Amino acid sequence: MSWSGPATPEHARVALLQATRLLEASETPPAFAALARLAATQTASPQAAIHLIDAHCVRLLAGVGALPKRQSREHALSTQALQQDGPWQAHDTRDLPHPPHLPADAWPVAYAGHPLVVEGQTLGALCVMDTEARQWTDAQIAGLADVACAASALLAAELNQQRARRMDARVRTASLAGHDWLWETDRDSRLVWVSSSMVQHLGLDPEFEIGCKGVDFYEPLPGEEYAAQWAQFREARARKEPFSNVLGQRITPRGRVIISISGLPVFDRQGTFMGYRGSNRDVTRQVQTEMEMRRAQQQLLSQQAELRESEARLSAVLHALPDIWFVLDESNHYVDGHDAHPLLIRPIEELRSHTIGHELPEEVASLQQAAIERVRSAGQPQRLEYELQTNDGVLRHFEARLVPMGKKQILFVARDITPVKEAEQTLRGKQAAEAANAAKSAFVSRMSHEIRTPLNAISGFAQLLQHQLPPSEDGGGHLGYVRHILDASEHLTALVNDVLDLQKIETGYLQCLSEELSLSDIVQRGISMLGPLAQRHSVTLLSEIAPGCNVRADRQRLSQVVMNLGSNAIKYNGADGLVRFTVETRDAGRLALHIEDNGPGMSEAQLTRLFQPFERLGKEMSNIEGSGLGLIITRSLVEAMGGELQIYSRPGEGTRVSITLNRGVPALVSEPPFDFDERLPASRSPQQPMPPNSDLPDQTPLQVLYVEDNRINAMLFEEALRPYDQLALTVAEDGHSAIDVATQRAPEVLVLDAHLPDMDGLALLKALRDLPDLASVPAYMCSADAMPEDIARAKAAGFTGYWTKPIDIRQITAELTQLAHQKKSPP
Description:
Strand content: 15-25%
Low-confidence stretches: 1-7, 668-690
Number of strands: 28
Number of helices: 19
Helix content: 25-40%
Oligomer: single chain
Radius of gyration: 56 Å
């Protein structure tokens, strides 16, 4: 459907201009001439004009100076008003094309204009001109705008005056159809006349309606009700019957409007149908209001239904909640609540006639009343916690939330958070325990470092003295004293290691890998390592475990268990004693490793104290080495591997220790090279000599850079390497000194302490790796830090090895001389 007549903004603008009738007037109202003069005076311009812009040309309404009465819109400067929202200027128009019908001296050189706007439509322009190029000042342009405002108001007044005149004519010609617009059709329903008031109501020129079927301009409103009315309207017209207040809609320049159509059939004297006469009325606002009211009513009914459903759901949810809830009125009386809740102090029926808190202790009631006052004053939800003893005699902790509702009511919801509080208390205890364990771990680590540092000097220099002193015939003398020092230092080192292991077990940091292992191989290697100790104690070691007996365990930890239990069986045995290793198959895929001795055995009382830290069952003052921690560590290692440790002993009958482990697949196991942990007892005897010095005169010494800030430790290292001509040692006391030394001459081996005055060993290694020729040289960390995480960090940083203080001089010199030999004989 389309609307007839002009539909563009230009048509509406021209129609509005024509409605002023100024283009048709024989005389211009003098007020416009006065405004033109005022504009010329305000701007000090020789020429001024008020132009009206119709559909084809620009007409002069009033002006100052010699000006053309009419110009084409194409060449007139005032046409720019249609594209401007405010004042504009042309300082020099000589470069612009001049109208061909105007002499050159009639075309202005400078031009300034302002649009004349009425009811949002630009009808013309107020302009000032000069015959010379110029630029008007801001004050002059402001004055021009003021005059343009007055001219626009004068145009609006002329328009309103013309409208008033037409209104008078319309009133005089109004018919029975009322004060709307009237129309008449012929017998073919074609419009033959439409009153001029149509343009005021719809913005349509009635002339464009003539000759068209009026019904074709309309369509029914959406909806079944309006469709039925429209069908009745068509039937009435077909029967040539009257119709009244039929609603239709059509598109106009002002948008879609709703029209009420009424009509009466016209017949001549012979009864011949001549057409219809009727009236139309714009009822857009009325119908839209009725529609909105109808929609609002339907929405209200829908909201009321939803509210009832929501209230029903809320009630169902509240009754299903495990929480206690109440609804309080504006006087804080109970209105509703969660009846039959097991934690209710009183039944809800008894509470309805009372205010909240009357049945509670005064302290709790005061807290609830204060929270209610905050809700009513702030209008925001509130929260509180309180303790209350319920009917079952249990003191519980409750969390309550108070939420404002409609009708000045308050929803009070309380939840039993006793389990949460207990969990929080448990968590705080756990966190405190973890903090204590962390502090304990830090202390143990620091204690280990502080003990190992002086112990390094004691053990190291004792090793040097053992190598340098001549042996005596009876094994005594100074060399015997040195051996006692070495034994004591080894015992103290083992004690520190046991304390570290115990701390690691207690904090849960012990990790075990599960792999397929040959139990016979593990035991045989353990016997080999324990051989020197058994020989000194005159004890025989015997394994009765056949090959192919496999278990699932951690290789290093199982070896440590075998060594600890085997060494105990040797040390606490008697002369000419026997230690037997046997295996027993048990149910559910388990194996039991038995380690039996024929020593003095233990009583029931001794067995009960066996797993207490530092408990040695009266052997503290004996010459049997031990810390009293070995069994505790061993049991923890077995349990970490998923096993079980049991001890059977009777006085005079010896002791049997049983280790139950998961059985592996009975097949041959490929054993990788065995790598003992540094915590295992040493396989060498302290009396064994150090490796002899190598006499290689044609070999260039291996350049070793040792970075150590402790002078005693540095002196020990120097003395340890002094006998080896194939090793050349340089010592630096801090990181920067080491970098300077390495810059002057690149070392071939790096030995770094973990803690230096200016940087740590990890940072120093990174800095040295950036120097030329040091990217891949072997690097060793030599430190009193012995925690597994310390060793792991050093390995991740790129260190080749980790020498824990107190150092084993034999091990260090062996590794360094091996590197020197590889340098002489490259692969």
